[in-house]
Automatic annotation (TrEMBL):
SUPFAM superfamilies: Phosphoglycerate mutase-like. It comes from Polaromonas jejuensis. Pfam families: His_Phos_1 (PF00300). This is Histidine phosphatase family protein. Transmembrane segments: none annotated.
Length: 185
């Protein structure tokens, strides 16, 4: 079984802003270009699950316009990590003491005071990942239209890591906006 992991196009947000669950549109032309590229490469009748955040929904809708043969649904588990009170703030405006607190307790610190911890985020993504291999689902290729954090979490899951303790264990790379990679499960 193959899992396609697609990152949404460039969001319409200023550089240096913390956003995860912050819902904003993506660049329309970049979204259309990504949809065209994907549509040309995807196999028929592929299952597509999308984060409900509009930057991902835009891509799912554009792809559906080009490939109505694909099977579409929205899955809230594919949303980006919730950064709590940090959402919409410039990263450099977040107190160094808050960032250090997160780094010291990377697994369990509720980011932005009320957001998700990395452990909760990983568990949410793992639930969606595990459902791919549930009876009746096994063996069917799937595409996720999602976010960099979710893709990094899947990269950890496919390497056998379900829980990480330290920030240096978090994968540093994800596909660029509007790009993708695949994982064989």
């Amino acid at each position: 079984m193959k899992l396609w992991l697609v990152r949404h196009a460039q969001p319409l947000v200023a550089a240096g802003i913390c956003y995860g669950r912050l819902d904003m549109a993506a660049d329309a032309e970049a979204t259309a270009q990504c949809a065209r590229s994907l549509a040309a490469q995807l196999p028929p009748r592929l299952r597509v699950a999308s984060s409900p955040l509009q930057r991902c929904e835009q891509l799912a809708q554009a792809l559906q316009g080009l490939r109505p043969d694909l099977i579409y649904k929205t899955d809230a588990r594919l949303q980006e990590m919730d950064f709590g009170h940090w959402e919409g703030r410039a990263w450099q405006a977040i107190a160094e003491t808050e960032l250090q607190a997160w780094s010291r307790d990377f697994a369990d610190y509720p980011v932005g005071a009320v957001g998700e911890s990395v452990s909760r985020f990983m568990a949410r993504v793992a639930a969606a990942f595990d459902a791919l291999q549930a009876p009746g689902e096994h063996g069917q290729d799937t595409l996720w239209i999602t976010h960099a954090g979710v893709i990094r979490a899947v990269d950890l899951l496919t390497s056998g890591l379900r829980h990480i303790e330290r920030a240096d264990q978090w994968p540093p790379h994800a596909p660029k906006y509007g790009q993708w990679h695949t994982r064989d499960l």
